[in-house]
Structures are given as C-alpha cells and as structure tokens.
Amino acid sequence: MRPLLLFITILFSAPLLAQENFTVSGTVKLKSTGETVIGATIRSGKSGTVSNEYGFYSLTLPKGKNALEVSSIGQETKKVDVTLEKNTILNISLEDASQNLGEVTIKSTASGRSISGTQMGVERLSTAEIKNIPVLMGERDLMKAVQLLPGIKSAGDGNSGFYVRGGATDQNLILLDEAPVYNASHLLGFFSTFNSDAIKDMTLYKGGMPAQYGGRLSSVLDIKMNDGNNQDYSVSGGIGLISAKLNVEGPIVKDKSSFLISGRRTYADVFLKLSPDSTINQNKLYFYDLNAKLNYTLGQKDRLYLSGYFGQDQLGVGESFGLSWGNATGTARWNHIFNSKMFSNTSLIFSNYNYKIKIRAGANDFQIFSQIRDWNLKQEFQWYANSRNSVRFGLNSIFHTLRPGEITSSSTSSVNSSALQQRYSLENSIFGTNTWKASEKFSLTYGVRVTAFSILGKGDFFDMNSKGEITDTFNYKSGEIVKTYLNPEPRLAASYEFNESASVKASYVRNVQNMHLISNSTSNNPTDKWIASTNLIKPEIADQYSIGYYKNLADNKYELTLETYYKDMQNQIDYRNGADIFINSDAIESQLLFGKGRAYGLEMQFKKKVGKWTGWVSYTLSKTERKIDGISNNEWYNARQDRTHDISVVSTYQLNKKWTLSGNWVYYTGNAITFPAGKYTVNNQVVFYYTERNGYRMPAYHRLDLGATCVLKQTKKTLSELSFSVYNAYGRENAYTIEFRQSKSDPTRTEAVQTALFKFIPSVSYNFKF
Amino acid sequence: MRNIIKISLVLLSAAIMQSCTKVIDVKLRDADKKYVVEGILTDASGNCRVLLSKTKNFSDNNEPLGVSGAVVSIKDKTNGTVIALTELSPGVYVDASFAGIPGHSYELSIAAGGANFTAVSVMPQKIKFDSLYITKDQLFGDTRTLANVEFTDPPAFGNSYRAVQYLNGRELTNIFVTNDDYTNDKKNYAKLFIFSDDDADKAKPGDTVTVDMQCIDPVIYRYWYSLDQGATGNSQSAAPANPVSNITGGAIGYFSAHTIETKTVIVE
Predict the structure, then answer these.
(1) Nearest CB to A754 within list B5, B24, B183
(2) Is any Cβ of chain B less than 8 angstroms from the Cβ of A749?
(3) Burial of B120 (C-beta count, 10 Å sphere; 0-12/13-18/19+)
(4) What percent of chain A is modeled with pLDDT above 90?
(5) A128, A146, A290, A358: which has the highest count of C-beta atoms within 10 A?
(6) Which residues of B touch A756 (CB under 8 A)?
(7) Which residues of chain B have pLDDT under 50?
(8) For residue A555, what are the contacts with CB-CB under 8 A and spacing of at least 6?
(9) Local confidence band at A107 (pLDDT 50, 70, 90 cut-offs)
(10) Which residue, among A479, A477, A584, A465, has the nearest Cα to A536 in the 3D structure?
C-alpha cells in the first residue's frame, strides 16, 4: 500500500507547486464539413497536446494571455489567442489547405510518428494520403497501402492479410469504429472490407500498444469512419473496371447532426454473364458493402454516434455450389464531457462474422453454417489531470459466441444434419495508464491492462494425451465457468527528446490473445476457423521490447525513423501433420500442436513530406521463428512469414494542377516454405518425402506499380477526376505457388511448376464529388 | 463432404484467377534415404502383396527403387496364422492364395538391411457396393464423364471407404477416400472427380470404367487423407508433410487390410 501512496503523491504533487493554471478544452473540426479532426496538434509555447479520436482536446495553461497554434495534416495552421481567467471552452475550425494555395499544391503528408510523445511503433494514414498510390484494379484500399510501411508485410498477391513484426495474420486486431472485424477481406482476399470513401483515419500500432487496446498479439489497426458532413450535402462516387461506389452525406440539422451512407458493389459477375459458355455465365462472383453513420450533438457536453457496417460476398458455381460470407458491425457511442479535464466515452458494440456454404451435387443437398458473434461494452475515461499528467482508464467486457459448424441437409442427402457445440466466453478487461511529462525532454507512459478470459458452459471439454487422443471428457452446464485465464499486461513507454528535431523512445508491452484463427492453407479462406481459448488451448502471450530513434531533417522536410524490436511469443498454435481441418468433433484440440515463437528486426523509413515530390523508402530486416512440439524435431524453424529483407519505395509527383504521377516498387525475400527432400512411389503414383518444415524459400518478390491521376474539373465544392494505374508494370511473374509433379514431357522425371497470378494489370476509374 | 468443399474452392479460384504457370528449376537438398512400405491384404486371394522400396532424390528418375532380400511376413493376430511372403521381383513380395477375414487384425513384419518394421491393420466388415453409374458433369467449362459410387453406411460410426478407379483397365491415381463422420447410417453417393486435363484420363463413350470399393481401417483413411493433403506436391497446404503412417520402426508408407468389391460399367 505504501508504495502506491508514494506513487500517487509523486504523480500529482509536482504541478500543485506551480502558478495558477486554467484549462482550455474543446473540439477540433474541419470548417468545410464539420468532421472532427483526430490527432490535431494544439500548442502554446512549450505546452502541447493532440486531439483525441473524437476531436476533443484539453490543455492546461498559465492564467492570462496564451497564443494557441492548431495544426493538422492537410489543413491550414490556425493561430488563436485566448485569455484564460477561468477554464474555457474553445472549439476550433480548421480550413482545408489546398483551396488557398496557388498554382501547385504543396502538401504535407501525415507523419505517423511525432518526435515528442511516448507513442512509438505507430503508423497513421488518411484516405487523402493514399489517394494517389496505384493499386490493383484501381480500387483504393487502406489495407493495401499500409503494407507499404516498414514492419508491415503483405501476405502476398491475392491476400489482404498482413503480417506485423513476425505475427500471423490473425494476430492483428482490426477495429472499425471500435468493432472487431473478424474477416477483413473480400473476394478471397483480393480486396479489403474497408471502403476508403467512408474512412476518416487509420492508425496501426505495431508496438507500444496503448493500454486501451488488447486482445491480439501483433498489432492494432484502428479504423475510424467519417462522421458525415454537418455543413452541407455532398455526393461523391467512383466507377472503376470492377466496382462502383457512391457516398452520400449531409446535415440533418446543420452544425448539430449529420448522416453518411456509403455503398460499394463489384460487378465482375456482369462480365461472367456475357460469356456464351453456360458453365461460366451461371457463376456468381461479387461483393457489396454498406457503411452508415449518424451523429447527434446534444448540447455542449454530449454527442451520440451510431455507426454500422454490413458487407457480403457471394460466390457460386452454377447451381451446385454457393459460398457467401460477410461481416456486420454496429457501434453506438456516447461522448460525454464532464468538465474541461474529463472526457468519457461509452460504447456498445456488436460484431458478427458468418459464412454459409450451399452444396447441391446429385441427391446431395445441404448447407454448412458457421458464425462468430460478439457483444461488447466499453467504458473509457480520459482525464487531463494537469499539464504533466494525462490519464486514461476504463473497462471492456466482451461476450463471444462461436458456432463452429452446423449442417442442415435435405432428407435425400447422404450428409446428416448436425451441429458442433456452440462455444461461449466472456472477456473482461480493465485498464489504466498515465502519460507523465516528467520534464521538457523526458516523458513516461506507464499502465496496465488486466484481462480475465472466462470460458463458459455449456459444452464438453476434454483432456488429451500427447498424440491428441481424448483421455477424459468433462461436461459443463449452461453458465458454468470452465476456466478463467487471468493475465496482467503491463504497458510501458518512455521518450527522451534531444531537441525539437530528434528523440529516442523505448517501450515494453505484453499482449494476450484469446481468439485464435487456425488455417491450414497458403491463403486466407473465408472458411478458416476461429476458436476461443479452451482448457487445453492456452491464451497466446507476446512480450515485445522496442527502441526507436526519430529525426526530422532540413526544416522538417524529411523524416528519418529507425525502430528495432524483439518479440517473444508463448502458446502459439499450429496444426498437427495430417490434421483433418473439417473434423466433425467438438475436440478441435486433437488436431493442434502448441509451441512458442520469437521475432526480431530492424525497421527504417526515410520520408520526404513536403513539396511537389513526396514519398518514402522503407526497409525492414527481420527474422521470425517458431518452435512447436511435434514439428521439425522440436527445433526452431522459420515461420512462413519470415522474410529477411523487405523494401518499399513509394512516391508521388505533382506535375501540375491537372496531373499527379505516382509509383511504388516493392521487393521482399520469398516466404519460407516446405519443399520435398525426396520422392517415392505409392499407389503407382510419385509422391514426395519431407524432412524439415519451411526449409526453403519462395523466389524473391518484386513489383512496380504506376499511376496517374488527372483532375478534369475542380471547384471549391466539386471535383471530377480520372485515375489510371498499372499493377505490376514490368510484368514480373511472382510465384504464387510452387507445385511438384510428374513431368508432362518426360513421365520418368519430376518437375517444379510455378504459378503466378497477376501480370501487368491496367485499370482506369472515374471519381466525382458534388 | 470434405471433397466437395475442396473441389468447389478449386473451381472458384480457377474462375477468378487468370494465372500463368511455368516449369522452374529448384535446387533441392538430398536427404538420407528411407524405406517405403506399401502393404496390401484384402478379403480376396491374389491381392496380398508388399512393395518395399527406398526414397529417391528429387532429381532421380521415377522408377521405384525396389529392395530385395527382405524377410516379409503377415500374421493373423486373431487366429495366430503366419504367412511368409515370397519375392516375385525386386522389392515385390507376394502370396498368391492368402486372403484376410473381416474383423481380424493383421500384423506385417519386415526385416531388411538390419532394420525391422511392423504395422498392424484391422480388416473392417464388408459393406455392400450398391451401384456404379456414370453422370455427365460441368467441370472447368467442359462436360466431364464421371463415375459415381453408391453404398449404404451401417448404423455404427467408424466406417471408412476408398475407391480406386480404372479406365479401360488402367488405374487412375486420384485418391478418393471418405468416412462416415458426416454421413453415418445414410445412403452415400460419391462422385469420383477427375481433375486431370490429360485427355487419356477422360472417359469417352464406349470406354470401360471399373471401380474397386474398399472398406478400409480408419488408420488407413488418415493415411490416404493426409497423403492427399500434404504429400502429392500440390501447394494448397501451408505445411506439406509426410502422411500419418501405421508403420513403426522408421519406414514410411502403410499397411492396409481391407475388403474389396469391384463393379464395371461401359460409358454410353
């Protein structure tokens, strides 16, 4: 108890000695649309703060006259004088920078990181920033853009999954307006579920995760939707080769409330219908998604938000096979400002992912259904205690329901109707963290998140031997607690600013993950299985240590970032050799093996932020290994996502008012992969003999994409433009798979065959706004 | 059911992806050679044979490397009978008259080059092969002639099946196995998909299609399932691996005691 008291005394005593202070607080908004601005910097002399995820800021300053300077990416910096005689509310509107500039727009691109502040390992992108990055089929995609940043690796062509600092694709927490999205891909991974028209901001934490986030090991991808223009009606949209989208927003009551609806649908299947071949024109292949948001300002202190996402993919082969999957999320939020120092947000969140397979083959006629559903309550307080301390604390409670698989079949079908047991769990967390500005130069963030994961009945749980055979079965009744895993997750971060343009930061975080995705395939499938921790599947735990150096050069025109990390992972999950992924049993653990992992690496980025020509070069050197009992003689082996080198070059050049040119080039070492060590004959067929897991590498991957955007017409409110892009401009055949088979030309031999997916894909799209 | 899902995903990816393939040169490291056992005992005489070979390097030719001079025997653990197999040609050990009895447990023993391998397999009860017929199905934009197998699964769980298809007497190498996990106590209809785009593997009017239906030990079901998933060289599996074997002593392969029933149909 005594250390705690001492701690509290130190924490809050220092500022009390200072002169009389008052607090200025309010919301930062865009003048044109009324959208709140996330991460705007508010400075006065040496004091400063940034607006939070709802645009709220609070800054404690000395009594008397203070000059505030408010800045944000893409906006005019605004200077406001404020005389503080008491705590004051000051809402700030920022004007769009580009409208006031001359011939050529001089943009400043966002810097994810800032020199000051303890947060490290963070990347921020806005929709405006990725606007010119050339993409596959012209479909702007934040998820693809983020993979061009250091430490974040694409899972490959035709895969929207990504690896962060050696983590697997399921170890990323993807939040859309706080709601977890369990499958963030469309069309088997070619596109992400996020319609960039509806997105305001995306922040990715690859290290030093703040205590308010938890539940996944590797990263947090926090995506915020636009609130909707509360000043004026606006319609924008785009038509591309494979998709069209439309976004409508406007005020319900000007300055007080607004709505936004944004929809997107692909029409690749329209082309299929043109085919004269009846086996092709009956195929279905499309997705659509819908984002909607409403918000109401109820006086000075309260604001309500309702937001939702609904997306669905439909794939079908004639009459015989159909696969549909989709996410639905809903978030209701209430912001309340208690006083100039205390901000509160309460969220009630719903999240659902399901897939359905329909099969009709002769007399066989059945459906398979699987679902994961969360109800989630979050309460968070942000207390701007004084000029040196800002505190966040709160709680989060999630109720997970998993329906692993249910079959409904007709009476003629040879398949029986059956259902695997539903799994229930309750994930409760509390967190508290304080950022302490110890001196001008030194800041410290310390906090903890405590997670209690309770597995609930009803259901059967098992004991197993080392071969995965069931040795005992325990039956639990509805509501009975099977097991509770209690895990404290310390979060520490420190920064030291050498001067205004250079700093060093260090952090330590522990993350715990209780929802696991098991996949046995080289690409992510919509039918991959989410499972919760059980008595046998322990929570995954990762400890990450990182250090970084940050430097702004040449009057902040350039930015250099160096970060290095070491990550230790426990209770990692892999499939047993020969596992049956469609096993009709509640004891999924019988197909799994457990072990540990480690990852370390160095990330560098050099960025040019200002001028006609902007862009960055990023480089990652890294190593990722696993050690699983029962695989590769229990030795360390390279994880599939282990890539030694990973380079991205991204650049945009503003030629003139009309034309913007862009290009990006990526290069990375091929994934680690298992190749045969020999062959033999069984069943009159040549098959392959394996000795080591992931002992080989795919060929190195590289690709150049080019883009050009032409502004056809632009006024203050309207815009129309054409975007051209070429994906894989020099037609590199990057290996998607390598297969081994009996040679077709010489059946006495075997050969390796490489398949590449995309070779030179041009596209054009038209975007408008009025 | 597993096959239907797998097949459907293959069809879908084919529909979406315009891809290009080419033969590439991959340098593979050679590994120590392993013994490979392929042991078969059926309820009909004339099928008892054990093939003993060794693994080869990837760059070698595909001719199996038969191992001569091994001592091979099969013991009926239920009644104690032991049959010694004789070497017919290098690496091929047979007994012309030995037939297994459903419900009996068999143990294969091999002594070769100072090593001893054993494997146990239980011959399941025989389940009737109800019918074999041909249907025309759409596959990859053309019409394929496919064989269909019907049988009725008994009330108890735990039955596994394998079908081996012959076109004009030539064995096709597709692995087709199923079990009653999802289809217990039901009339089963199984379509034997052939993905090969080789014209020689496509049945034409007038061709003879023959199918052996085997009732196999669940252990052997796992062998074929995992072989098909992980060792045939296709890369859909993230982690190719040797199939789950019932051979002990360090060899790879399998020993299967199964029943067999054959039907033949002429394609119209």
Answers:
(1) B24
(2) yes
(3) middle
(4) 48
(5) A146
(6) 19-21
(7) 1, 4, 7-12, 15-16
(8) none
(9) very low
(10) A465
Residues β-bridged to residue A222? A175, A203
Which of A279, A368, A520 comes nearest B238 by C-beta?
Answer: A520
How far is B34 from B243, CA to CA, in rounded Å? 14
Subunit contact B233:A749, Cβ cutoff 8 A:
no
| Cis preceding linkage at A458, omega within 30 | yes
Look up residue A109 and give its two tokens. Answer: 């691109």
Give the chain B residue nearest A682 (alpha carbons): B38
Tens of pLDDT, residues A362-421: 778 889 999 999 999 999 999 999 888 999 999 999 999 999 989 999 888 888 888 999
Burial class (CB in 10 A: 0-12, 13-18, 19+), B137: middle
Of B26, B229, B238, which has the smallest distance from its Cβ to A640's Cβ?
B238
- Residues A755 and A739: beta-carbon distance below 8 Å: yes
Say whether A145 sits in a helix, a strand or coil: helix
Contacts of A320 in chain B (CB under 8 A): 8
Q: Mean pLDDT throughout A433-451?
A: 93
Nearest to A691 by CA among B34, B155, B137: B34
ipTM of the complex: 0.92
Q: Which DSSP string do the residues of B180-197 spell out, in sequence order?
A: STTTTTSEEEEEE-----
The pair phi, psi for residue A698, each rounded to 5°, is -70, 160
Whether A742 has its CB under 8 Å from any CB of chain B: the answer is yes
> Scanning every residue of chain A, which has its alpha carbon at the shortest distance from the alpha carbon of B224?
A578
Distance of CA A298 to the CA centre of its chain: 31
> Residue A283: what pLDDT?
73
Residue A376 identity: N
Give A188→chain B minimum CA distance, Å.
9
Contact A521 B189 (CB under 8 A): no
- The structural domains of chain A, ordered by start, are 21-100 (2.60.40.1120), 108-221 (2.170.130.10), 222-769 (2.40.170.20)
- Classify the phi-psi angles of A105: left when phi > 0, otherwise alpha if psi is within -120 to 50, otherwise beta: beta
Summarised one tens digit per residue, pLDDT across range A4-37 is: 444 444 444 444 445 688 899 999 998 888 889 8
Of A317, A363, A747, the CB nearest to B11: A317
Cα separation, A371 vs A726, in Å, equals: 38
Q: Which helix or strand (DSSP H or E) is residue B241 part of?
A: none
Q: Are strands A243-253 and A257-266 parallel, antiparallel or unpaired?
A: antiparallel
User: What is the pLDDT confidence band of residue A271, given thresholds at 50, 70 and 90?
Assistant: low
Give how far A746 is from chain B: nearest CA, Å.
10
> What's the gap between Cα A223 and its chain centre?
7
Q: Which of A655, A299, A587 is nearest to A423 (CA)?
A: A587
Closest residue in chain A to residue B16, using alpha carbons only: A285
